[in-house]
Specification:
single chain; 229 residues; mainly alpha; Tetracycline Repressor, domain 2; 8 helices; elongated; Tet_transcr_reg_TetR-rel_C_sf; transcription regulation; Homeodomain-like_sf
Length: 229
């Protein structure tokens, strides 16, 4: 949706006064930029494409967002605020046990990554993985975001250990890394056109690796997510 341009008051002679200049719906423009970055990535999105999608002039863009990089950072935060609503609501739901939380998280991931009202996959999962030296700050920022979600998973698993829902000898960090890797793989599958059901089936198969019993042994290929395994 193109942002509606709001014209300010004009002074005498039809000229714009010294008051507030023409404004635009900043939130709508930011959402348009977020979806474009999500679809094409930082380097794949040109400045001209950005201002066209946002419905703003070059001067309004610089006055409001400062630079393409600053806009990308803000668009990323906007995406994280949106995705964090469903991610953390499921991950930290006190009414379900830890294993159920992760099973539902994979189910929701399959749904969210294949919705028709936004680009496929995840804006964070693969962003900034191939960057020239001059864009190391973008690469580092996206790596930090991915690490944060993984650490949130690990924290939930540790809570499960404390509550007796997860075996005491489970390697919480490794299990979280595994779940994070699966989620990022689902993002790739979604971008390649995989169906929601295929993603859901992958998530269900991934859950078969969840530590079972006091030994923490996995049921997937005889591997284990237990310390010292």
């Amino acid at each position: 949706m193109t942002p509606k341009i709001i014209t300010g008051k004009k002074g005498e002679g039809g000229k714009r006064g010294r008051g507030r200049p023409a404004a635009f719906d900043r939130a709508v423009a930011l959402q348009a930029a977020m979806k474009l970055f999500w679809e094409r990535g930082y380097e794949g999105t040109s400045f001209d494409e950005l201002i066209a999608a946002m419905g703003v002039s070059a001067s309004s863009f610089y006055n409001s967002f400062g630079s393409k990089e600053a806009l990308y950072c803000e668009a990323t935060r906007s995406y994280l605020e949106w995705s964090g609503q469903w991610f953390f609501a499921i991950l930290n739901d006190p009414s379900i046990d830890t294993k159920t939380a992760f099973a539902r998280l994979f189910e929701a991931t399959a749904e969210e990554f294949t919705r028709g009202d936004h680009p496929l996959g995840c804006m964070i999962s693969l962003a900034g993985t191939h960057c020239p030296p001059g864009m190391s700050n973008i690469r580092d920022m996206m790596a930090e975001h991915r690490a944060f979600s993984e650490s949130a998973m690990a924290a939930r698993i540790r809570k499960g250990v404390a509550n007796g829902e997860v075996p005491e000898d489970a390697d919480c960090d490794m299990l979280a890394a595994y779940c994070s890797a699966v989620a990022r793989g689902l993002a790739v599958q979604a971008r390649d056109g995989a169906s929601r059901e295929k993603l859901a089936q992958i998530g269900r198969l991934a859950m078969s690796a969840w530590p079972a019993g006091k030994s923490g042994r996995s049921r997937l290929s005889g591997n284990a997510f237990s310390d010292g395994a």
